[in-house]
Amino acid sequence: MAAIDIRAVDKSFQKLKVLHSVDLSIDKGEFIVLVGPSGCGKSTLLRMIAGLEEVTGGEIVIGGKRVNDLPPKERNLAMVFQSYALYPHMTVAGNMSYSLRLRKIAKEKIATAVAGAADILGLAPLVERRPRQLSGGQRQRVAMGRAIVREPQAFLWDEPLSNLDARLREQMRAEIKKLHRRLGATSIYVTHDQIEAMTLADRIVAMEAGTIQQIGSPEDLYERPANRFVAGFIGSPAMNFLDAQAAPANAGHARLVTEDGLTFEAIPGLELPSSRQLTIGIRPEHVLLGEAAGEGAKEATVDLVEPTGMGAIVHFRFADISHQAYHLGRASWRAGDSVKVALPTERLHLFDATDGRRLN
Amino acid sequence: MTVTMSRKRFAATLAHRLAVLAFIVVALFPLFWLLKVSVTPTKLLYSEGVRMWPSETTWAHYAFVIENSDFPLFFRNSLIVSLSTALIVTLVAAGAGYAMSRFAFRGKMWLVGLLLVTQMFPLVMLIAPIFKILSSIGLTNSLSGLVLVYTAFNVPFAVFLMQSFFDSIPKDLEEAAMIDGATRFMAFRQIIVPLTLPGMAATLGFVFTAAWSELLFALMLISKTDASTFPVGLLGFVSKFGVDFGQMMAAGVLALIPAVLFFLLIQRFLVKGLTAGAVKG
Ligand SMILES: Nc1ncnc2c1ncn2[C@@H]1O[C@H](COP(=O)(O)OP(=O)(O)OP(=O)(O)O)[C@@H](O)[C@H]1O
Ligand SMILES: [Mg+2]
């Protein structure tokens, strides 16, 4: 187990620059989750740490040692691929023991390690099978088994669950969390899944177009996104955004007016020059509908109601812009109904309209 | 409803089987004829007219070919030349095909272009220069000279063939092996090669047959009996005075045996689906 330091790392593929001076320090035993839109460079970063991709600029340090020029085998990392990448001509046991056999470890020790890992992952009855005789979920477990029989400096995961169905994903997510608690190994985990990111991470790293936008605990990213990109990316359904302008202050507090005439009085602790352009963000689960909206609520038109079981996503329309609210419990509205909507001031996120920086 | 369905299906199956049968008959008929003539006594060959099977059969042609002709020698030569060519070409093509499949290197486009260009010339055009080159280094009338020429002509296509086999193996597999602690070469040997055996077997078989039946260069480059391969030997049955069909056909049947044995030997590697289960699925 080791700490990993990524210092000002750049990556280019020929002329295409895909990572721009990425800095990230990962503590020993920490579980880091990388999220970001497709093509933002998550896999590339992971593969550079693993030694599968050359580093164009900057330094990668694992356990205090610069590894830029070390081949993968000398970095002692374990990686779980999205495709699983099992060796088709070897049995489950053969797949899991390959790394140990390469290290010329004693046969008995290998057998113990493989049996132990197979037990943890519930693969014990399958060790003599070949990958093609396994289901998707079982293959995924073998891929994990191959990683945990070793004692690597760190685990790298590239979307390991994305080929599984929803149920199995949930199960494996819990397994991974347990495994991490048990082994306490440094882990870097790439995912597109919001729930995986929120539940597994000690810290989430949100990336966009080859740069890190924010690093922080899941709560940090959810409650205080550093900029508009993170605000829009973290959370599902996604945050609503409204364009607004600062109006002349009212007793020292900022007052905001949106394009469609909504006014927000008294934003606590915020002073803004008058007529400054900004973006207001509010999470769907913080939008109040109907009764809950109370006094001074605005009228909106319901576009669509999507029941999710636990609640419902209500799409509504102010002026001509569509927004979403998450309503816990049964939603009695139908498309076309008019509904009272309130956006509580204390729940608002404010971002600069030009650079997207957080203001409050 | 179900009756018409199953009847339709029956008709389709029948048509399919008949088509396959027709194909097999057309493909195998010359072989059958080869066999038939090889066991027909010479005296019946012209006297019985066209019959599916002679009224009397004989092994005399075989006995003559094995005991009284140079055919055993031609066989040995052919075997040496074809096996060496097949092995060398497959090894070279495996290495080159892997590089073409996995690495980006400078001049790759040019190399591919060049390999393609070599496939465009009619061989006849090249005979004179090749003869000149080989004779100046003393490689005419030698089996190594033939192996060299056959290797050169078979490598480009074999490289493309092997490249396509490597392309079909996910890159993740070697990367996983390297992360597990293998060098690139170990990953190639322990993970990729076992999975490309069908491809290598196909290449081996393809090159072996090509070399086994090559006539043009063998004829031009070899003039002595002791370095002749069997296709050249076959021509020996065509003399000024006539063609001894019985013996020629018997030699032909014998010549088929090594090729058939060779394919039987490699056929277990020719099965597909070795990579099943590597990825999600
Ligand atoms: N071998 C390569 N050659 C050229 N460009 C590449 C190569 N690998 C990746 N890229 C480019 O680098 C960028 C980042 O790719 P990367 O695979 O890291 O994205 P990602 O964040 O993992 O995306 P996804 O979520 O879809 O997996 C993309 O624009 C991609 O096209
Ligand atoms: Mg990726």
List SSEs of chain A in N-to-C order. EEEHEEEHHHEHEHEEHHEEEEEEEEEE
Provide mean pLDDT of chain B, rounded: 85
Q: Determine the mean pLDDT of chain A.
A: 88
Outline the biggest β-sheet of chain A. 6 strands, mixed
CATH fold description of the largest domain in chain A: Rossmann fold
For the secondary structure, the number of strands of chain B is: 2
Could you write a compact summary of the structure shown?
The complex is a heterodimer of chains A (360) and B (281). Helix content of chain A is 23%, strand content 34%.
Can you give keywords for this protein?
heterodimer, A: 360 residues, alpha+beta, Rossmann fold, OB fold (Dihydrolipoamide Acetyltransferase, E2P), 3 domains, six-stranded mixed beta sheet, five-stranded antiparallel beta sheet, 8 helices, 20 strands, B: 281 residues, mainly alpha, MetI-like fold, two-stranded antiparallel sheet, 12 helices, binds adenosine-5'-triphosphate, binds magnesium ion, Mo/tungstate-bd_C_term_dom (chain A)
In words, what does this structure look like?
The complex is a heterodimer of chains A (360) and B (281). Chain A has 360 residues and is of the alpha+beta class. Chain A folds into three domains: 4-233, P-loop containing nucleotide triphosphate hydrolases (Rossmann fold, 3-Layer(aba) Sandwich); 238-283 and 345-360, OB fold (Dihydrolipoamide Acetyltransferase, E2P) (Beta Barrel); 288-342, Nucleic acid-binding proteins (OB fold (Dihydrolipoamide Acetyltransferase, E2P)). Chain A has helices at 42-50, 92-102, 107-120, 136-148, 166-183, 194-200, 218-223, 228-233; strands spanning 4-13, 16-26, 31-35, 57-62, 65-66, 77-80, 154-158, 187-190, 203-208, 211-216, 240-250, 253-258, 263-267, 277-282, 288-289, 298-307, 311-318, 321-328, 338-342, 349-352. In chain A, 41% of the residues are buried. Chain B is mostly helical and 281 residues long. In chain B, helix 4 (71-102) packs parallel to helix 7 (143-167). Chain B contains twelve helices and two strands. The model of chain B has no long low-confidence stretch (mean pLDDT 85). Chain B has a two-stranded antiparallel ribbon. In chain B, 73% of the residues lie in helices and 1% in strands. In chain B, a hairpin with a 2-residue loop joins strand 1 and strand 2. At the A-B interface, strand 6, helix 2 and helix 4 of A face helix 8 and helix 9 of B. Adenosine-5'-triphosphate is lined by residues 13, 16, 18, 36, 38-44 of chain A.
